[in-house]
Amino acid sequence: MRTLTQKKANLPKWGNNARAVSKHQKKLLLKRFAPVYLLILPAAAFTFVFSYIPLGGLIVAFKDYDMFKGFLESPWAGNYGMANIIAIFQNEELMGSISNTVILSVLNLLISFPAPVILALMINELRLGKFKKVVQTISYMPHFLSWISVIGLTMVFFGEYGPINDIFSLILGDDYTRVLYLSKQEYFLPILLGLNLWKTVGWNSIIYIAAMAAVDPQLYEAAMIDGAGKWKQMLNITLPGISVTIILIFVMNIGGILNSNFELVFGLKNAFIDFETIDTVIYKNGLQQRGYSVATALGLVRGIIGLGLTLLANGASKKINGVSIF
């Protein structure tokens, strides 16, 4: 038998030796997971180059930027550098773009956020393996189309002599008058919402399907023994089981409430449509009219509001549900 003295001799010593052991363990972990860190390195470098280095350009928001003088030599804007930010809230077009972006994003959130959850719940209930795979494949496919391809297909389908008009003409007969849907203001927003839903719903459902796979199957077996049907199982087991995932995704989506799909909006806009978002105004002011300072200020305001909304939603989620992203 080992004596008490021998046992004490094998216990780790504290002080400087503990630090040495800790450093040694860190080196071992670093060596063990070196391939993983190498995989992360390209993504980290990409993020640093394209997301962090450009932050220095935010100084343009506080200057009357002159491209010939550069960032440092350009004079500061009036009102202690705040003139460009003040101009945003005094310009009707810029405020209108913010309003349109909020309306579009909120409607997208109300429609496109619950849709993947519903689709995932429906797919999860399918029992025929082959049919389930077919449904998943069909729902994922639109994600792999570029937005320019989606815009091209939309112009074909919603054109004056496209399939949509042909179907209505076939149903209603000679009384039907063909409609240029993409030239009608009242159809523009519904088309944007529908296209975004069609392209993203399948792909966004993947994370919820994965979360459902982690729910303990024994809970379903116990519920079946108690006489619970599929609907009650879904409400009392599946949804609570993926609630953490739903909350985290919702918190992250709240931060992008002032982001709009620039490619889709810009690609479908035409001379008959009056609909500007923050992204299209930044493009128009920054690249077409060379109003770099105001465009940068608008982007800065959007980023600050997005950060504030993320922190607010995260704090509320942490306080109410005990779930947060940080």
Give your account of this protein's structure.
Mean pLDDT is 87; it is low at 1-20. The chain has 18 helices and no strands. It is 71% helix and 0% strand. The chain is an all-alpha fold and 326 residues long. Helix 5 (83-90) packs across helix 18, helix 8 crosses helix 11 (185-204) and helix 17 (278-288) packs antiparallel against helix 18. It folds into two domains: 1-34; 71-321, Orthogonal Bundle (MetI-like fold), CATH 1.10.3720. The chain has helices at 4-10, 16-32, 34-52, 70-73, 83-90, 92-112, 114-125, 129-140, 147-157, 163-172, 185-204, 206-213, 217-225, 230-241, 243-254, 262-268, 278-288, 292-321.
SSE inventory with pairings:
Elements (H helix, E strand, L loop, with lengths): L3 H7 L5 H17 L1 H19 L17 H4 L9 H8 L1 H21 L1 H12 L3 H12 L6 H11 L5 H10 L12 H20 L1 H8 L3 H9 L4 H12 L1 H12 L7 H7 L9 H11 L3 H30 L5
Helix pairs in contact: 5-18, 6-11, 7-11, 7-12, 8-11, 9-16, 15-18, 17-18
Distance between the termini: 49 Å
> Structural class of the secondary structure composition?
mainly alpha
| Mean pLDDT over the residues | 87
Largest sheet: none
Name given to the CATH homologous superfamily of the largest domain: MetI-like
The percent range for helix content is: over 70%
Counting DSSP E segments of at least 2 residues, the number of strands comes to 0
Rounded to an integer in angstroms, the radius of gyration calculated over CA atoms is 27 Å
Number of helices: 18
Morphology:
globular
CATH class of the largest domain: Mainly Alpha
> What fold name stands as the CATH topology of the largest domain?
MetI-like fold
Query: From the structure provided, what is the oligomeric state, counting identical versus distinct chains?
Result: single chain
- Low-pLDDT windows of residues: 1-20
β-sheet strand percentage: under 5%
Structural domain count = 2
Order of helices and strands: HHHHHHHHHHHHHHHHHH
CATH architecture designation of the largest domain = Orthogonal Bundle
